[in-house]
Amino acid sequence: IEKNQIAQHNDTLLGKHQKQLSHLKNEWESVDIEKVIQKLVDFQIAIPSWALGTGGTRFGRFAINGGEPRNIEEKIEDVGLLHALNASSGAISLHIPWDIPQNPEQIKSLAASYGLKFDAVNSNTFQDQPGQALSYKFGSLQHVDKAVRKLAIEHNVEVIKQGIALGSESLTVWLADGSCFPGQLNFRKAFENTLNSLQEIYAALPANWKMFVEYKAYEPNFYSTTVGDWGQSLLYANKLGEQAYTLVDLGHHLPNANIEQIVALLLMEGKLGGFHFNDSKYGDDDLTTGSIKPYQLFLIFNELVEGMDARGMDHATSLGWMIDASHNVKDPLEDLLQSIEAIMIAYAQALLVDRKALTEAQQNNDVVACQEILQHTFRSDLRSIVAEARLRAGAALSPLNLYRNLGCRKSLIGERGQNTVATGL
Ligand code: PSV
Ligand code: MN
Ligand code: MN
């Protein structure tokens, strides 16, 4: 995508945009909007390498689009395209071995040519790889057989090495480990085995790295999961040490969990490491961020901003921000643009909450005022400040429209063909 294509697109929308922005500035004259815009410019969300092809469920996969990236280079190209459109997708998160960089130096400089960094690297001990000597069928880091645990530990250490070569600074460990039936597992031994294994991986972390311990309530195991909730993740993180943190994936909770409260307490403990954004209606974890529960997303960001400010943390760099979703029925790039937009809007809303008034209302137990304060920003249309942040960063006022108007998917199909299948999920 050329700079002049973005400029032309912006020219056609500029008049209307400026009107909306000045209206918004009038409405919010007591707020330092310039500061908010700068925070939005700085905020970057990593794109997972597995979200660039059409996903699927265990019932099937419909590769509707064509032009899917066939290798890691093309995945980087796709994230580069997103970043050119919205200036907010400046990082990529790799899943190994779904995406193995054969020549890390080359991959790193390709990414840099699009202004992209490498976010957390993700290990995979939830699938057996072709030719693998031992199976993860009954778990990996928790396994009753030491030899299986060793295999999984070695894989994680290898992933750290790959990440170092790419300039990543964190490892995300998500384990499918658990059990499907009562009695199958000794919970305490499974926990202890997992902890011992994680300790060995932790010992291989460079000093400037973080380890994210991701939890998930269920799936693929349906009776117990060995890192099943934030309490268990926090236990591991606390026992492991300073470099270990809990990672919150929005879709990994039991229905109606109060995720904003979880976030607030993890931040308070200095143990919130990062996020996987997605949305869900039932027990799923792959819907477009903000498509089902935008109010929840705002409430989460409200706690994030409050908690990070209370601890003097830099919003953009203190936590790992990543999308984790890959659905069946949309063009994945359009889906990602929608997710990023939803995240940015929720973040902007949280930045505009009148903290002083909220604290005062809380202190006075003025429950009605508390709700009014939060819903005032949630119900305000802040899209034009998000668009202004993009404009200032050299990106498109309306990324999704530009993507469609330029026929980006059609060009990708032209280059890569109709029947391409992306690696990964
Ligand atoms: C598992 O559901 C998960 O959320 C983990 O983050 C994995 O790494 C990712 O999805 C891809 O399977
Ligand atoms: Mn996840
Ligand atoms: Mn998930």
UniProtKB/TrEMBL annotation:
<keyword id="KW-0479">Metal-binding</keyword>
<dbReference type="InterPro" id="IPR050337">
    <property type="entry name" value="L-rhamnose_isomerase"/>
</dbReference>
<dbReference type="InterPro" id="IPR036237">
    <property type="entry name" value="Xyl_isomerase-like_sf"/>
</dbReference>
<dbReference type="GO" id="GO:0046872">
    <property type="term" value="F:metal ion binding"/>
</dbReference>
<protein>
    <submittedName>
        <fullName>L-rhamnose isomerase / sugar isomerase</fullName>
    </submittedName>
</protein>
<dbReference type="GO" id="GO:0016853">
    <property type="term" value="F:isomerase activity"/>
</dbReference>
<keyword id="KW-0413">Isomerase</keyword>
<keyword id="KW-0464">Manganese</keyword>
